[in-house]
């Protein structure tokens, strides 16, 4: 599903966020990406979602080499990735239904299909019946679950989350992680960036640890040869 082959990322200001990082994540696997603030976790997720491109090396996602993708193909590529943010990034003036439906509306999905998928996604995260509420009428934990519903409403094969429990108390954090485990159970590949090592130990998944932009821990499989695909 995901292959990083000797990936480095240097920004225009000269900061090297990643240095020669190699790992892979299998289909249907759940992996924790850990490290202190500034270790490179968010950069890894941005490279997976093609919000950034590597300076050196190759990133393959679902068999596609992101270096080889032309700009006109990026939007279609991202439709196969669900993204969960720490701060939800919900539209405050739009109800829950509209927030969850946004990826489907952008993809010009038929209205009947949007209604079915949004309700199914809200049911998965335990929010069915709250479609007409505004985000500010929900608790912080419920807002995060709306963000998760929006990330999975398109049924993406890959779900990535950047510090999704950073603003939650321990009980809500466990609840969010259990949701991710449920998606993994039905075959979704899940990559979660977090600094919460207690939560990581509790859920017992493979860990990729970053320090100073380099991989220092976690099982790294032998990488197949990387061939650019368009």
Strand order of the largest sheet: 6-7-8-3-9-10
Write down the overall mean pLDDT: 90
Count all strands and give the number.
10
Low-pLDDT parts are 218-230
Task: Give a quick rundown of the structure.
The chain contains seven helices and ten strands. It has helices spanning 41-48, 74-78, 96-106, 111-124, 140-152, 170-185, 197-203; strands spanning 2-10, 16-25, 30-34, 56-61, 64-65, 81-84, 158-162, 189-193, 206-211, 214-217.
Account of the protein in words:
This protein is of the alpha/beta class. The chain has 2 domains: 1-80 and 157-230, P-loop containing nucleotide triphosphate hydrolases (Rossmann fold); 89-155, no CATH class. The chain is 32% helix and 24% strand. It is built from 7 helices and 10 strands. The chain has helices spanning 41-48, 74-78, 96-106, 111-124, 140-152, 170-185, 197-203, and strands spanning 2-10, 16-25, 30-34, 56-61, 64-65, 81-84, 158-162, 189-193, 206-211, 214-217. Strands 6-7-8-3-9-10 form a 6-stranded mixed sheet, sandwiched between helices. A hairpin with a 5-residue loop joins strand 1 (2-10) and strand 2. Helix 3 packs parallel to helix 5. The longest helix has 16 residues, at 170-185. The radius of gyration is 18 Å and the shape is globular.
């Amino acid at each position: 599903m995901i292959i990083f082959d000797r990936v480095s990322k240097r920004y225009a200001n000269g900061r090297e966020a990643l240095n020669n990082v190699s790992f892979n994540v299998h289909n249907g696997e759940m992996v924790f990406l850990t490290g202190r603030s500034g270790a490179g976790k968010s950069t890894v997720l941005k490279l997976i979602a093609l919000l950034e491109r590597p300076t050196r090396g190759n990133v393959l996602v679902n068999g596609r080499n992101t270096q080889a993708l032309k700009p006109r193909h990026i939007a279609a590529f991202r439709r196969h990735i669900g993204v969960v943010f720490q701060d939800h990034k919900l539209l405050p003036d739009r109800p829950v239904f509209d927030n969850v439906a946004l990826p489907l509306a952008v993809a010009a999905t038929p209205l009947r299909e949007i209604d079915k998928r949004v309700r199914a996604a809200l049911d998965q995260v335990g929010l069915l019946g709250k479609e007409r509420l505004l985000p500010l009428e929900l608790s912080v934990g419920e807002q995060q679950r709306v963000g998760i519903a929006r990330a999975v409403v398109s049924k993406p094969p890959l779900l990535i989350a950047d510090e999704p429990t950073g603003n939650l108390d321990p009980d809500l954090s466990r609840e969010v992680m259990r949701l991710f485990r449920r998606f993994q159970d039905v075959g979704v590949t899940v990559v979660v960036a977090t600094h919460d090592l207690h939560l990581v130990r509790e859920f017992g998944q493979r860990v990729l640890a970053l320090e100073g932009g380099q991989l220092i821990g976690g099982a790294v499989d032998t990488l197949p040869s990387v061939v650019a695909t368009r």
